[in-house]
UniProtKB/TrEMBL annotation:
Protein name: [acyl-carrier-protein] reductase Oxidoreductase, short chain dehydrogenase/reductase family protein
Entry-linked Pfam families: adh_short_C2 (PF13561)
Main enzyme class: oxidoreductase
Cross-referenced Gene3D superfamilies: NAD(P)-binding Rossmann-like Domain
Amino acid sequence: MNPRKNMTALVTGASRGIGAAAAVLLAEQGMNIVVHYHAARDQAEATARECERRGANVMVAAADLRNFAELERFKAKLDAAGLSPDILVNNAGVSHYGLFTDVTEQDWENVVGVNLKGMFRLTQLLAPAMVRRRYGRIINVSSVWGIAGASCEVLYSLTKGGVNAFTKALAKELAPSGVTVNAVAPGAVETDMMRDFSEAELAALRAEIPAGRLARPEEIASLIRFLASPESGYITGQVISPNGGWLT
């Protein structure tokens, strides 16, 4: 008997990259999948089709994570569909590259809104049901820069450091209720977040990484899949960084 068969996994930002890869790998486990997106509907539906090919029941739903009212409507849609996620993958995120002194209020509102505010509120909406069931898995996608910090990515690093602190604190609060909270903090990954880097910059980046390459989204998703499993129940409050030996 597959203990995952009746579980529901919600993956935010599942239209592409790590989120799409995570949704597909979780679908292979026999779970119901909620594919969240903000604006990339066509790509989200493509992710959903990949999940359905693996036998999953799939719901596709949009929400602006920066907006509490939209998140509450999103939760209402889940309730109406009879879906109460056992697994929450807070993957959605936006990057910001530029000098610290050039960060605007709009930059702040956008990056903090998606990377921190949305993660906080969505988890707040979904965690009570996990606590009542005395079972849940919350996996937050952070970044190596949330651990080490990066020049010209101060705003992004700040938010990912916040994700790590949120993970550690919430893990302690929810552990007695059987809910684990962990963060995955990848190094450089072949996703759209790297699109603003030139080929010369990417080559220099690869040269810094002992593994000699960027990660594939599926490699990060495989760690998310494990942390989402029943077998991972004694792992909580951890920030795990798959980074090819870049940061040790």
